[in-house]
Amino acid sequence: MSTQTKGPVIIITGTPGTGKTTHAQLLAEESPVPLKHINVGQWAKERDLYESYDEEWQSHTVDEDRLLDELEPLVAEGGLILDWHTCELFPERWADLVVVLRCDHTQLWERLEKRGYALKKIQENNEAEIMEVVLDEARSSYPADIVVELKSEGTDDLESNVARIVQWIHAWLKDREKISG
């Protein structure tokens, strides 16, 4: 568990198209403490933290060491939402909560088609969702009590999930008050 006091570090992860960024944006707005939202993929792109570009998958390969080095001081401050399609590279000590968003594969396929993903990329991401790849990564990388799996298939899920995470933040804050006071 991280030691910062400003606010928790929450990792929101899931297969592309499960609603990570939408959840993170709404959570940043509704949180009882200020939380900075970092869309890790966009953040890496803006800082050119790439090793290469994979033409076949139409995506960049992130330089994980540089990424972690640049994120470390922000994580140390706390009050952060890290939004990315993977989570296992983030050190266990960084995370106070890991939220894995899940979506029905048919709905996910449609979302990725609307984004203009290539068929091969849609198929791979759909298979990853069916096989629970991201959920398994989270469960094998972090303590079970901080990993939460949430359905993300519509507006009702979004609102319910964010409300649930806000309740968790309130409990996290109370626990910190007990520890420090």
Explained architecture:
Residues 114-124 are annotated as: LID. Its main location: cytoplasm. It is an enzyme of class 2 (transferase). The mean pLDDT is 94. The chain has one domain (9-161): 3-Layer(aba) Sandwich (Rossmann fold), CATH 3.40.50.300. The chain has helices spanning 20-30, 40-46, 64-77, 105-114, 119-130, 133-141, 155-180, and strands at 9-14, 36-39, 50-54, 59-62, 80-84, 97-102, 147-151. The strands form 2 sheets. The protein has a 5-stranded parallel β-sheet, with helices on both faces. A two-stranded antiparallel sheet has the order 3-4. The radius of gyration is 16 Å and the shape is globular. The protein contains 7 helices and 7 strands, in the order βαβαββαββαααβα. By secondary structure, it is of the alpha/beta class. A hairpin with a 4-residue loop joins strand 3 (50-54) and strand 4. Helix 4 (105-114) runs antiparallel to helix 5 (119-130).
